Amino acid sequence: MFSIILRNLITNAVKFTQRKGKISIFSNETDKNIQISIKDNGIGISPEKQEKLFQIDSNNLLQGTEEEKGTGLGLILCRDFTKKHGGKIWIKSELGKGSTFTFSIPKIA
Q1: To the nearest whole percent, how much of the chain has pLDDT over 70?
Q2: Which among 13, 35, 39, 37 is positioned nearest to 26, based on CA atoms?
Q3: How far apart are CA 29 and CA 1, in angstroms?
Q4: Domain limits of the chain?
Q5: Residues 79-106 pLDDT 10s
């Protein structure tokens, strides 16, 4: 499930970032959690769309920078998988400046 979360978030970053854009992956570890962030300098997401990104009953279909299509289910799976492992996922984004998707999961003792 961890690799599916990473793959989906990285694929989305590529999909919504222009050619020659920048995608970065960061990690942080605390005593209790591991946190992974995928940051891009792509098209960004409006605050209205951000509120609905992880909701299954919302139409979140966006075309990528090269008109790629998606189902809108990838982020919902990411949310469900992080929750299943006691974690959480969130976004920071600004239109025209890019997005950062971050998820954290508890460390295994």
Answers
A1: 89
A2: 37
A3: 19
A4: 2-106
A5: 999 999 999 999 999 999 999 999 999 9
pTM of the model: 0.88
What dotted CATH number matches 2-106?
3.30.565.10
Sheet of 98-106, strand order: 23-29, 33-40, 98-106, 88-94
User: Measured in whole angstroms, how far is the alpha carbon of residue 94 from the centre of its chain?
Assistant: 14
